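Notes from the 1:1 (GR / supervisor)

We went over the backlog. Supervisor wanted to see one worked example end to end before approving the batch request, so GR pasted a single chain during the call. The sequence is below; no edits were made to it. Supervisor asked that the structure be written out right there so they could see what the output format looks like.
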Amino acid sequence: MAVSQRPSHGGEAKRHERWLKDRAGAVKGTLMLATGSGLVGGLALIAQCWLVARVLDATIIDGAGLNEVWQWLWPLLGVFALRALASIASDALAFEAAARLKRTLRDQVMNRLAALGPRWMEGQRSGEIANVLGGAVEGIEQYVAAYLPQKLLSAMIPLAILVAVLPLDWVSGLILLVTAPILPLFMVIVGRGAEALNQRQWRRLSLMGAHFFDAIEGLTTLKQFGASRREAEAVGRMADEYRSATMRVLRVAFLSSLVLEFFATLGVAMVAVYVGFRLYYGQLDFLPGLFALLLAPEFYRPLRDMGANYHARMEAIGAVGELAPVLETEAETRDESEGETQGDAKDETDAAAQTRTARPLPSDPIRTIRFDGVGFRHDAANEDGDGVESVDLTLARGECVALVGPSGAGKTTLAKLLLGFLAPGAGRIEIDGVDLREIDVEAWRARLGYLPQRPTLFAGTIAENLTLGAPNATPDEIHAALLRADAQGFVAALEDGLDTWLGDGGSGLSGGQIQRLALARTLLSQPEVLILDEPTAALDGDTARRVMAGVHSASANAATLLVTHDIDVARTADRLVFLDRGHVVEQGTPAALEATGGAFARFALLAEEGAA
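Structure output shown during the call:
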């Protein structure tokens, strides 16, 4: 499932708007306060127009002086202050509601991504995920802060103005009443076309953002193959197409604004003409006529403001097309796994999953891990190979078991199964006799230490990266972890040492340095189960030997699963399991397997000949 599904028709747009309203319900109280403040400002406006009309009537018609009109000028100053305060309060409350909802949505997206797990993320474009967390969440701000409050105010303030005008000048009130529905009617008619264009525009923006993000990530590769200029031209073409599409949306949006302004101006003009003629023929007093004339533009203003904010609704509906697919994607249970190819076995585990509840891990250290007939099949074209089948192996506390075999043999798959990122489609993984699927996954992962093939360091200091999983680690513990990972020397040589700032992905360090810091971070958490996936891939021979010596020293009381192509590293393990095409071919001590001249011995010989 891709995150870029878009609404393709009106029904989908309505569903997305319902989704928005449901989410906005979380900040309903704050929005109602914002709307109430706006309504207070609208009522103060009516009072302001009445006081202004009263002052002008007394001055022009009755010839009153300044002393006679002070009784209305002082309240008028108070009304000005009230309107200002109401406007400030309304804007502040609306902003707070939008900010709270954005924080909530970002938390929900991050929690959903964490629940979906690394395997789901592997099938997504990082640019689109970044767009969801950034642009899509930001896209709903104006909908909440501007459109929703204005939608209510566009009904309440004109109604309040009608109530004030009708008793004094029923003709002007009737004109306002008749012309009022014309504005939202034409806004909807014109807005439908703009909405369809806006949906397509969001899709273009998502694709352009994802493409640009991916191009930046792969800039080194593009430069290496001389393709950076072609990629820049492609991005330029996409940007130009986006610009042209944006102008088409703006043309429709300006047409909508023109229609609103035209009918609002026409309504005000009609009120002015009728007031003028009736004043001329003596059919209307000056005070009510001026009052109605002053209020006529304000009657249409909330409707025009809603029209001006209508684009916020369209933008938000487009943004939901990015957010909803992520938030509504169901996290796969560990019983369901990726077992679509497992047939009836998956149905049985699904049924069993409904009756299970997660069990906490016992407080005692983990003693034995057992793979019992474990099988798992990947989707086609997966970089980890086809999967594994009927794998039986054990891993005990204090033991280091190396998984060795050609690429795609299933080594990394077994590591991910043990981590809980994947679930067996057949067989079971037992932790001290308890099925891993019955154990609380967060409690299980808290006992694990994992070093992936391509570890990630985050923007921050070296110390912050090291203590990610052990925030209360002491300086002595950090120093010991760095020594075991053979990283103390280069860290000490840095000008700021542990306080050295790293860029995203460990920018500023070599691949080997990143690998060793990530290993130190893993060891610092003192895991009971240590899973190392190619821990020496970026290291030279001497460094690799020092690192593995430190690993064995640190993991004396841990169960260690070592995934490696490095024959020298594999020989340091207590026991070796050789995999090929998802099957366990042989297992035993490295020395015994080499002595038998079997699959591992042939593999080691080929590896050494290739290295030579």
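Supervisor's comment: The first strand starts at residue 368 and ends at 377.
Batch request approved.
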